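retry 2 of 3: previous attempt timed out while embedding N,N,N-trimethyl-histidine. Reduced batch size to 1 and resubmitted. Inputs unchanged:
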Amino acid sequence: MGEAYVVLDQGLPQGDERKAFALDVLTGLSERPRRLPSKYLYDDEGSRLFRAIMRLPTYYPTQREQAIIEAHTQAIIAPMHGEAFDLVDLGAGDGTKTMVLLKALAEAQADVRYVPIDISIEAMRGVTARALREVPTLHTEGLVANYLDGIQWLSEKYPERSRLVLFLGSNIGNFHKPEARKFLRTIWSVLSPDDRLLIGFDLKKDIERLLAAYNDPTGTTAAFNLNLLTRINRELGGDFDLQKWQHFGTYNVFSGGMESYLVSREDQTVSLEALELRFAFEPWEPVQTEYSYKYLERDIDALAAATGFGIQDRFYDLERDFLDALWRVEKNLRSGPSRRA
Ligand code: AVJ
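retry 2 succeeded.
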């Protein structure tokens, strides 16, 4: 049996990926305050730790979004009724939420193809195997690629096909606001009029609950954050001593950003072979690692309007902790941006 996914040419061979990582670490540690990009949290161990986070009682976003999708399955898939379409899944994770939609679509005998897009082959194997096992009648064609390359490739290869794109889990929260707009505008530009996007937002809420979600008592979130230093040690020949670092998660009410840091507990010097450099850290010096922005409902509507989407529906959990917005691609050739030079 053939694989249920295609690997798009990523351009970057293994050695160049390591160079890009080294360069990002150099850039981030040269800034003041220092920072490290959150995308590097997800190596195999980081992905495993994040799956463990999703099972924590304090990490409410996963449970809430799961409840939303279970409660509103029919309303989510209804707009695609009668059409042949691709269900495009950007970062399916372990696929638990998507399976709810796929099972309902299979039951309704919808003409759907499942297209998970993920940069990790491991994640792709997991989610396509699960789809095959749980919804055996389903046509699945995964893409190992980054999100934008994957959607671009799809729209070129199948220009006539409708799409329902899933961007769940509040992954949009990792982007600063201008980057979120740019990302959504790019997705909009490769989609066709009337394609749909189901996008998950974590809503602003009681600050104590936010803090508990990102500073869990089992230390899983701390291990997830600290794993970035282990990854630097392994891939870039670093000598970070994890005993000398502590995880700190805090919330900025004004920006809406949940912010994660690694804090140096003492005066220390760390060397990185790949950069042939040593970095000195002062006691209690922070290194910023992740943002998870929380949204107001009006900011979500404004984001849709700013990026070319119309609001089709909004789905909430009972506690209104989380919002899955269903947006429709609006393209009006007369009022759109001018194509003339
Ligand atoms: C997977 C990016 C949505 O920001 O809540 C969980 C990652 N970090 N706990 C989030 C995460 C710490 C998560 N996202």
